[in-house]
């Protein structure tokens, strides 16, 4: 307050010092989720450690990438499965995506590969079996929990230890974000996830949107059946997903309104899309040499993400065929079997510096599975996309980018070699794609605070204030008929009907009186004339 009006640099320093001093160190519990989810959550955790907070990460001892070289206390618990089990189940899951795509809750529920989810759900049971660990957590008196809600465990931990929580997610499956945050999502223009609809839906799509919402209400709890059983067991009371999610203090959502469509939000939702974008670093020699050799045509970067390792052979050959028909050099991150028809402009690599390559001016296009990390790297660097979504939020991400003219979406199951070739030629040669993604890029980057700083601020806010109850809407305390004001509407309707009824009765009475008089007069008149 005292700083306003001062313009010399010295008071500015004082102000900065004051704001720094405000961030007193606290104690934070982190419950992460494995896989690509951890990539960005990790950057927030690292920054919180750097800022001097005492951070404890609780993770299963079997994992792909959790924990690695974090400079903080890491507590592991033993799991009921091995790394081989995890790999095998994930492979089965990824493999199934090449056969049929999940476009409804029903197909999600009926998926024959859902064992992977049950492995993740079982983590929490394992955590709470470790009595020493639970005792340690209880005695540590944390200020808050920072969690990825995917496997529910962080939500259960927050509730069990009665700690305020910060949820970190791209989105929440089913209707649990709307329910947990009490956020309205009108079905007329807010598409449900998995459908791949835009916000301008046809009548048929709006009908499908409603049915999807109904499916969520009817079927989602069955998808989370095992997770909820474990939660009820740990919390020793029957719990629903709503019970778990509605405990959340702050929602850190990895999206923004450059990627997503505008829609209603709540005051405890913070949008940190693009948190994974980094300043491009110089390229390793190997990749610089590929770019130098590509000449005036430049390069195309191709990656289906860290989670897809193998593509069915026929599909891989169709893709390789299309890649050979463009003049650009294609750098393809692929660890599966080398397609026999691979053209000489296509280079297979086991790994590539994706963000740095996308940041290079010679990069013409990005072929991606449209995972949110890749899409944001594309937005940040302004590279048009050819998108081949496979599962999760990817169909939706792709649709959003396509409707904004920043890329072309292909149905990976049905596309032919020509489709891919045409899509590539379109995004490379049609200037509008580049212009649109550059526009999105400048909109996305025009912001007062970097997403990483925003995320760190809100975690610290919850730690400082032991939650954010002032942001919690009173909607949580209402019954469903109160929320929709059905009782008020019913009451008012009753009043109006009663008034209408009484008025009608009075009029009818009055009318009858008048008529009666007239009638008698008439009658009297008649009898006189007789
Ligand atoms: C880890 O943190 C400690 C103190 O918090 C610091 O002294 C040390 O340099 C850090 N190590 C790394 C590898 O960052
Ligand atoms: C690529 O070209 C640039 C500019 O011509 C040059 O400075 C660089 O050394 C080249 N890199 C490689 C690996 O050939
Ligand atoms: C790639 O193959 C085509 C014919 O298939 C040939 O014309 C071209 O010279 C080859 N390029 C390189 C760099 O070997």
Notes on the structure:
By secondary structure, the protein is α/β, with parallel strands linked by helices. The protein has two domains: 25-253, 3-Layer(aba) Sandwich (Rossmann fold), CATH 3.40.50; 285-445, 3-Layer(aba) Sandwich (Rossmann fold), CATH 3.40.50.2000. Helix content is 49%, strand content 11%. It has 21 helices and 13 strands. The longest helix has 44 residues, at 486-529. Residues 1-22 have low confidence and may be disordered. The structure holds 2-acetamido-2-deoxy-beta-D-glucopyranose (NAG) (3 copies). Residues 285, 288-289, 292 line the site of one 2-acetamido-2-deoxy-beta-D-glucopyranose (NAG).
Q: Which CATH class of the largest domain is shown?
A: Alpha Beta
C-alpha end-to-end distance: 100 Å
Number of strands: 13
Question: How would you state the average pLDDT, rounded?
Answer: 90
| Uncertain stretches of 5 or more adjacent residues | 1-22
Q: How much helix, percentage-wise, in residues?
A: 40-55%
Number of structural domains:
2
The neighbouring-strand order within the major sheet is: 3-2-1-4-5-6-7
């Amino acid at each position: 307050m005292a700083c306003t009006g001062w313009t010399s640099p010295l008071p500015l320093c004082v102000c900065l010092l004051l704001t720094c001093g405000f961030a007193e160190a606290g104690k934070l519990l982190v419950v992460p989720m494995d896989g690509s989810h951890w990539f960005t959550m990790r950057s927030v955790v690292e920054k919180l450690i750097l800022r001097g907070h005492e951070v404890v990460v609780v993770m299963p001892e079997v994992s792909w990438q959790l924990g690695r070289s974090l400079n903080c206390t890491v507590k592991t618990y033993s799991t009921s499965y091995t790394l081989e089990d995890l790999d095998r189940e994930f492979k089965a899951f990824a493999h199934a995506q090449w056969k049929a795509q999940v476009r409804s809750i029903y197909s999600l529920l009926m998926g024959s590969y859902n064992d992977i989810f049950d492995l993740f759900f079982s983590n929490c049971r394992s955590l709470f079996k470790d009595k020493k660990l639970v005792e340690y957590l209880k005695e540590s008196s944390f200020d808050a929990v920072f969690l990825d809600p995917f496997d529910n465990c962080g939500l259960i931990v927050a509730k069990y230890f009665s700690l305020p929580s910060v949820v970190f997610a791209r989105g929440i499956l089913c209707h649990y974000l709307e329910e947990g945050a009490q956020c309205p999502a009108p079905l007329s223009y807010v598409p449900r996830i998995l459908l791949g609809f835009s916000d301008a839906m046809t009548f048929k799509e709006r009908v499908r949107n409603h049915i999807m919402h109904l499916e969520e209400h009817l079927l989602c709890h069955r998808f989370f059946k095992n997770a909820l059983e474990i939660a009820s067991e740990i919390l020793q009371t029957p719990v629903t997903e709503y019970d778990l999610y509605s405990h959340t203090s702050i929602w850190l959502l990895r999206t923004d309104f450059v990627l997503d469509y505008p829609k209603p939000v709540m005051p405890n939702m913070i949008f940190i899309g693009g948190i994974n974008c980094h300043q491009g670093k110089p390229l390793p020699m190997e990749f610089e040499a590929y770019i130098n050799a590509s000449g005036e045509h430049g390069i195309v970067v191709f990656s289906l993400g860290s989670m897809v390792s193998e593509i069915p052979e026929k599909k891989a050959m169709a893709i390789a065929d299309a890649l050979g028909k463009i003049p650009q050099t294609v750098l393809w991150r692929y660890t599966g079997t080398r397609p026999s028809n691979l053209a000489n402009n296509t280079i297979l690599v086991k790994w590539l510096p994706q963000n740095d390559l996308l940041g290079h001016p010679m990069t013409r296009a990005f072929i991606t599975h449209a995972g949110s990390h890749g899409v944001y790297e594309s937005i940040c660097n302004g590279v048009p996309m050819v998108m081949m979504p496979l599962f999760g939020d990817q169909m939706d991400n792709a649709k959003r980018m396509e409707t904004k003219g920043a890329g072309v979406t292909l149905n990976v199951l049905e596309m032919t070699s020509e489709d891919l070739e045409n899509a590539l030629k379109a995004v490379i040669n049609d200037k509008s794609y580049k212009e649109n993604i550059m526009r999105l890029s400048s909109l996305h980057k025009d912001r007062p605070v970097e997403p990483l700083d925003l995320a760190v601020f809100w975690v610290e806010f919850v730690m400082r204030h032991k939650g954010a109850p002032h942001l919690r809407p009173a909607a949580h305390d209402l019954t469903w008929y109160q929320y929709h004001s059905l009782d008020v509407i019913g009451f008012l309707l009753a009043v109006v009907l009663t008034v209408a009824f009484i008025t009608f009765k009075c009029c009818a009475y009055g009318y009858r009186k008048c008529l009666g008089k007239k009638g008698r007069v008439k009658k009297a008149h008649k009898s006189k004339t007789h």
